[in-house]
Design a protein that fits this description.
Helix content is 34%, strand content 32%. The structure holds adenosine-5'-triphosphate and magnesium ion.
Length: 216
């Protein structure tokens, strides 16, 4: 019996870094999402297709079974909550860290010591809420959808919680990383029902992903 498999990916780094893992499973995507307008991409395997969605939408497509599996950052998975998702493999791709950053002139440590109420702008409100709660720091969280670095520069917030890789964006905006919240990498997520119903079809792909990501 042939079983269709649908893999959810986002454009950019996740798509690019997932390609070698798919390759290890013998699967090649035959169109480039950067130049194609298609949102459903074929592969060399007639039973496997890739759908292109926003990074933060990957868990939702997989949760509801519109995709059987997908690749999503730990940042995105923590905000989503992981409901309905089996998360078997850390793929060790799209690595970065989640951090607190403030303008270079702002004394974060002493603000925290004095128990000041901080305004924090972030896309990652759930993770930020948990982080500051665990430290006993009082915060007002301001939800943004991008360009968090701008917020403290124009007085929207005292601090930001954002992803950092090289730190060059922070430096270019006179921001300083003052607290490391967690390491981030991308995970394979699988729909729980698909894992049971399509186990035989999924198994070799999951194994190939696991072996290929171990060496990273
Ligand atoms: P969108 O561009 O649709 O708003 P996004 O910015 O979350 O979404 P990407 O920039 O493609 O989309 O990021 C996808 C994932 O890659 C993130 O969820 C995160 O796990 C990881 N990531 C984000 N920024 C970096 C970075 N600078 N270096 C390495 N990995 C990163
Ligand atoms: Mg981005």
């Amino acid at each position: 019996m042939s079983q269709q498999l649908t893999l959810a990916l986002s454009k950019g780094r996740i798509f690019e870094e997932t390609m070698p893992l798919l390759q290890a499973a013998g699967i090649t995507v035959t169109e480039d999402p950067e130049t194609s307008r298609k949102l459903i991409l074929p592969t060399n395997d007639p039973d496997v297709r890739v759908i292109i969605v926003r990074a933060s939408d990957v868990p939702t497509y997989v949760q509801y079974g519109a995709a059987d599996f997908g690749v999503a950052g730990k940042d995105v998975l923590l905000e989503h909550g992981g409901e309905g998702l089996y998360q078997p493999i850390d793929l060790n791709i799209a690595k970065c860290r989640m951090s607190v950053a403030v303008p270079t002139g702002f004394d974060y440590a002493s603000a925290v010591r004095q128990g000041a109420r901080l305004r924090v702008a972030t896309k990652y409100v759930e993770t930020a809420r948990q982080h500051f709660a665990s430290k006993g720091v009082h915060v007002d969280l301001i939800k943004l959808y991008g360009s968090m670095e701008l917020a403290p520069l124009v007085g929207l917030s005292d601090a930001i919680v954002d992803l950092v890789s090289t730190g060059s964006t922070l430096r270019a905006n006179h921001l300083l990383e003052v607290e490391h919240i967690m390491e981030i990498s991308s995970r394979l997520v699988v729909n729980q029902a698909a894992l049971k119903i399509k186990r035989e079809r999924l198994r070799p792909i999951l194994e190939a992903f696991e072996n290929a990501s171990k060496g990273r």
